[in-house]
Amino acid sequence: MKLLFENWRNFVDSIGEAAEPTPFKSAAQKRYKAQRKRNDMYSSPPGHKNLSSGSPFETKPKRAGTDRLRFEEETELENWRKFVNEEVEEPITTLRIFDFDETIAHTRSETRVKAPDGTELTVRSQQEFEEYMRAAAAKEGIEAFDAVDALIGLGYQIDMSDFSIVKDPHEISVITDIMREFPPNSKTYVVTARQGASLGPIMDYLDELGIDSSQVRPIATQGESKGDVMVVMMKNKIMDNGKSNINRIEYYEDSQKNIDDVLRKVCEDPELDDIKPLDFELIINKVINNDGQYNIQEIEC
């Protein structure tokens, strides 16, 4: 275990600071430099690679927009070092993980697609998007969890620029009412499939809702597996008895694709059983939209 966290520290020390100034200009981003003691994570394709190594990222920062892991200024790098030490010295027991779109808020974001044969489509919902991606991936023989990059490589034009902002948001209060409370011995994350550029606007929006964004850590997976992210979180927190100190994960999500992925990788994977505490709980709260009325369906591991 000591070796695992030493590897983390060595990794942080090795990457240094991105050379160019931050391209993000939101109020939340500016506050982070002076006030936040936690750091944002940005992931871009191909995203998480060598998860078994302990670190979910394996390359040095690139220019803005392509970073797998980007730190803003030396203070943010130092905050990440403190975070690593904090995970060793002050382990928590509960992870609260919230999706953003159709979970925290409904937005008017659209995805515009043009296929190589000239067919054009505007996708206006998560379900529509997943159905189109699944059909297009099957047609092209693609088996990736997220087929966007592979399809783009085959000539598909996929415009997701709406998702770099929070466009005309409407709060889903059944979730945000839960999010406003920060129980002891827990940490709260927003884990979104969006790109890293959206994290500043998302954190600004949380502040507008009266949610203390300084207590929330945002992660942009850009379509990568959320189940893999949770497995890494559990493996990075191992106690002397060989078990993860995470004995409860509360996951709030609308996408059945993501829910199935988390069930398969966190609940059903026998390889994870060795580090699960005996009292481990995975509580999935599926957010369901019934003609603008949102409710929660609880799914247990």
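the 2nd protein, sequnce then structure:
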Amino acid sequence: MDLLDPIRDLFGFAFSTLESLSIIRAMLGFILVLFLPGFTWTLVFFKQIRVIERVVISFGLSMVVVTLSLFLMNRLIGVRITGLNSVMIIMVVTIVPVMVHYLNRLIRRREEEDEDAGKVVTTPVQVPPAGEVTAEAVEEMLPEEAAVSARTVVIPPP
């Protein structure tokens, strides 16, 4: 029994369907092998590039990443290069950078929220002259304005 038999059974229907539709199989293979892995890695490596640059770089990066990953898995671990093994390795090479990209975004978003939570936002408050501040005037203010004016307004004695 091969380790990949359960996976073959699971995807057997899809593989048999794709074998009969050679044009769709070729297009999916082209996207999976020559575009998608490189595109996902450009999300990790290149933050501020235009879409056309990302597409062009992803073709070259896909060729390198797919070739090296298949070669290294064959030489280092001894995985045979078959169609199913190649698809599985390419899927892993494609999914890993997506996870890294979204983890980076999550970490950056949390850091920005922490920075925003630490900032003191001051808004100008219209404070009446010193003798005219009454309890009713403070109650009419919004809660944030009342807290700011209560801390910042000093009423000098008459």
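The helical segments are 5-20, 22-34, 36-45, 51-77, 83-118, 135-140, 143-152. The chain has two domains: 11-118, 121-158.
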